[in-house]
Design brief:
five-stranded mixed β-sheet, 5 helices
Length: 177
Protein backbone atom coordinates (compact mmCIF):
# COMPACT_ATOMS: atom_id res chain seq x y z
CA UNK A 1 0.00 0.00 0.00
CA UNK A 2 1.47 3.33 -1.09
CA UNK A 3 1.10 6.38 1.13
CA UNK A 4 2.26 8.95 -1.38
CA UNK A 5 0.34 11.90 -2.70
CA UNK A 6 0.00 12.29 -6.43
CA UNK A 7 1.17 15.49 -8.06
CA UNK A 8 -0.53 17.46 -10.83
CA UNK A 9 1.80 16.06 -13.51
CA UNK A 10 1.23 12.40 -12.72
CA UNK A 11 -1.80 10.28 -13.50
CA UNK A 12 -2.88 8.61 -10.27
CA UNK A 13 -2.05 4.94 -10.00
CA UNK A 14 -3.56 2.25 -7.82
CA UNK A 15 -2.53 2.82 -4.20
CA UNK A 16 -1.95 6.59 -4.56
CA UNK A 17 -3.66 9.04 -2.22
CA UNK A 18 -5.72 11.53 -4.23
CA UNK A 19 -4.36 15.03 -3.63
CA UNK A 20 -7.21 17.21 -4.96
CA UNK A 21 -10.72 17.15 -6.35
CA UNK A 22 -13.84 15.48 -4.99
CA UNK A 23 -11.91 12.39 -3.85
CA UNK A 24 -9.11 14.28 -2.07
CA UNK A 25 -7.61 12.21 0.71
CA UNK A 26 -8.94 8.89 -0.57
CA UNK A 27 -6.70 6.07 -1.72
CA UNK A 28 -7.14 4.95 -5.33
CA UNK A 29 -8.05 1.27 -5.02
CA UNK A 30 -8.72 0.48 -8.66
CA UNK A 31 -8.29 2.39 -11.90
CA UNK A 32 -10.53 2.13 -14.98
CA UNK A 33 -10.23 5.11 -17.28
CA UNK A 34 -12.88 6.66 -19.48
CA UNK A 35 -10.72 5.78 -22.46
CA UNK A 36 -10.80 2.11 -21.43
CA UNK A 37 -14.59 2.32 -20.93
CA UNK A 38 -14.92 3.79 -24.43
CA UNK A 39 -12.86 0.95 -25.90
CA UNK A 40 -15.06 -1.54 -23.99
CA UNK A 41 -18.25 0.04 -25.38
CA UNK A 42 -19.59 1.54 -22.13
CA UNK A 43 -18.97 5.18 -23.09
CA UNK A 44 -19.36 7.14 -26.30
CA UNK A 45 -16.85 9.97 -26.92
CA UNK A 46 -18.71 13.10 -28.05
CA UNK A 47 -15.44 14.54 -29.37
CA UNK A 48 -15.82 12.14 -32.31
CA UNK A 49 -18.96 14.03 -33.36
CA UNK A 50 -17.32 17.41 -32.78
CA UNK A 51 -14.33 16.40 -34.95
CA UNK A 52 -16.69 15.11 -37.65
CA UNK A 53 -18.47 18.49 -37.50
CA UNK A 54 -21.76 16.86 -36.50
CA UNK A 55 -22.19 19.06 -33.42
CA UNK A 56 -21.49 22.48 -34.85
CA UNK A 57 -21.55 25.22 -33.60
CA UNK A 58 -20.85 23.78 -30.15
CA UNK A 59 -17.07 23.27 -30.49
CA UNK A 60 -15.40 21.52 -27.57
CA UNK A 61 -18.07 20.58 -25.08
CA UNK A 62 -17.69 20.39 -21.29
CA UNK A 63 -19.39 16.98 -21.62
CA UNK A 64 -16.96 14.53 -23.21
CA UNK A 65 -18.73 11.20 -22.77
CA UNK A 66 -22.25 9.76 -22.79
CA UNK A 67 -22.89 6.28 -21.43
CA UNK A 68 -24.09 3.84 -24.06
CA UNK A 69 -26.90 2.72 -21.75
CA UNK A 70 -28.32 6.27 -22.01
CA UNK A 71 -27.85 6.18 -25.80
CA UNK A 72 -29.79 2.90 -25.83
CA UNK A 73 -32.92 4.84 -24.78
CA UNK A 74 -33.65 6.11 -28.29
CA UNK A 75 -30.45 7.66 -29.62
CA UNK A 76 -29.49 4.90 -32.10
CA UNK A 77 -31.08 4.50 -35.51
CA UNK A 78 -33.04 1.28 -35.79
CA UNK A 79 -33.38 1.42 -39.57
CA UNK A 80 -31.01 1.78 -42.51
CA UNK A 81 -31.23 4.57 -45.11
CA UNK A 82 -33.87 2.53 -46.99
CA UNK A 83 -36.10 2.29 -43.90
CA UNK A 84 -35.38 -1.42 -43.41
CA UNK A 85 -35.18 -2.44 -39.75
CA UNK A 86 -31.59 -3.28 -38.83
CA UNK A 87 -32.49 -6.85 -37.85
CA UNK A 88 -34.00 -7.39 -41.34
CA UNK A 89 -30.97 -6.02 -43.23
CA UNK A 90 -30.06 -8.23 -46.16
CA UNK A 91 -33.40 -10.06 -46.07
CA UNK A 92 -35.84 -7.35 -47.20
CA UNK A 93 -36.69 -6.84 -50.89
CA UNK A 94 -35.40 -3.26 -50.75
CA UNK A 95 -31.95 -4.55 -49.79
CA UNK A 96 -31.52 -6.14 -53.23
CA UNK A 97 -31.75 -2.66 -54.83
CA UNK A 98 -29.65 -0.86 -52.20
CA UNK A 99 -26.19 0.30 -53.36
CA UNK A 100 -24.71 -0.50 -49.93
CA UNK A 101 -26.09 -4.04 -50.08
CA UNK A 102 -24.93 -4.57 -53.68
CA UNK A 103 -21.37 -3.47 -52.85
CA UNK A 104 -21.41 -5.57 -49.67
CA UNK A 105 -22.74 -8.68 -51.41
CA UNK A 106 -19.85 -8.50 -53.89
CA UNK A 107 -17.14 -7.54 -51.41
CA UNK A 108 -16.62 -10.74 -49.45
CA UNK A 109 -16.96 -8.82 -46.14
CA UNK A 110 -18.62 -10.68 -43.28
CA UNK A 111 -20.27 -7.75 -41.49
CA UNK A 112 -23.14 -6.01 -43.24
CA UNK A 113 -22.54 -2.25 -42.79
CA UNK A 114 -26.23 -1.45 -42.40
CA UNK A 115 -26.38 -3.80 -39.38
CA UNK A 116 -23.93 -1.51 -37.55
CA UNK A 117 -25.48 0.92 -35.08
CA UNK A 118 -25.57 4.54 -36.21
CA UNK A 119 -26.49 7.56 -34.15
CA UNK A 120 -29.75 9.40 -34.64
CA UNK A 121 -28.18 12.86 -34.89
CA UNK A 122 -31.33 14.98 -34.32
CA UNK A 123 -31.97 13.02 -31.09
CA UNK A 124 -28.30 13.30 -30.04
CA UNK A 125 -28.35 17.07 -30.61
CA UNK A 126 -31.51 17.37 -28.49
CA UNK A 127 -29.83 15.36 -25.72
CA UNK A 128 -26.63 17.42 -25.83
CA UNK A 129 -28.55 20.73 -25.78
CA UNK A 130 -30.65 19.55 -22.81
CA UNK A 131 -27.52 18.36 -20.98
CA UNK A 132 -25.76 21.67 -21.61
CA UNK A 133 -28.75 23.52 -20.11
CA UNK A 134 -28.53 21.34 -16.99
CA UNK A 135 -24.76 21.79 -16.86
CA UNK A 136 -25.02 25.59 -17.18
CA UNK A 137 -27.06 25.74 -13.95
CA UNK A 138 -24.42 24.00 -11.84
CA UNK A 139 -22.57 25.79 -9.07
CA UNK A 140 -19.16 26.96 -10.30
CA UNK A 141 -16.50 24.26 -9.91
CA UNK A 142 -19.10 21.67 -8.91
CA UNK A 143 -18.15 18.21 -10.12
CA UNK A 144 -21.63 16.65 -10.11
CA UNK A 145 -25.03 17.79 -11.44
CA UNK A 146 -28.46 16.13 -11.55
CA UNK A 147 -31.20 17.08 -13.99
CA UNK A 148 -33.94 15.76 -16.24
CA UNK A 149 -34.00 15.33 -20.01
CA UNK A 150 -36.83 14.30 -22.29
CA UNK A 151 -36.06 11.05 -24.08
CA UNK A 152 -37.06 10.53 -27.73
CA UNK A 153 -40.02 8.50 -26.40
CA UNK A 154 -41.30 11.63 -24.60
CA UNK A 155 -40.56 10.14 -21.17
CA UNK A 156 -38.71 12.32 -18.64
CA UNK A 157 -35.44 10.78 -17.46
CA UNK A 158 -33.19 11.82 -14.57
CA UNK A 159 -29.55 12.08 -15.65
CA UNK A 160 -26.29 12.68 -13.85
CA UNK A 161 -23.42 14.74 -15.18
CA UNK A 162 -20.23 13.90 -13.29
CA UNK A 163 -16.68 15.09 -13.74
CA UNK A 164 -14.30 12.40 -14.94
CA UNK A 165 -10.51 12.04 -14.86
CA UNK A 166 -10.13 14.20 -18.01
CA UNK A 167 -11.44 17.25 -16.13
CA UNK A 168 -14.51 17.20 -18.37
CA UNK A 169 -17.83 15.47 -17.70
CA UNK A 170 -19.78 12.28 -18.42
CA UNK A 171 -23.54 12.28 -19.03
CA UNK A 172 -25.16 9.14 -17.62
CA UNK A 173 -28.17 7.42 -16.17
CA UNK A 174 -28.33 7.19 -12.36
CA UNK A 175 -27.81 3.42 -12.67
CA UNK A 176 -24.49 4.09 -14.48
CA UNK A 177 -23.03 6.02 -11.55
Amino acid sequence: MKNQNINENKTPEEGDIIKEGPYKGFQLVSKYTSEEATEDGFLFDLDLLVKAKKLQPYGELPIKYITTSLLDLGYWNDRCNNAVKVEDAGKADRCQRCPTWIVFANSGNKVLPCKEKTLNMPNIIDLVVAALKIFSKRIKDDWFVIGQVELPSGKKQTVYIAQNETGRYTLMLPSDY
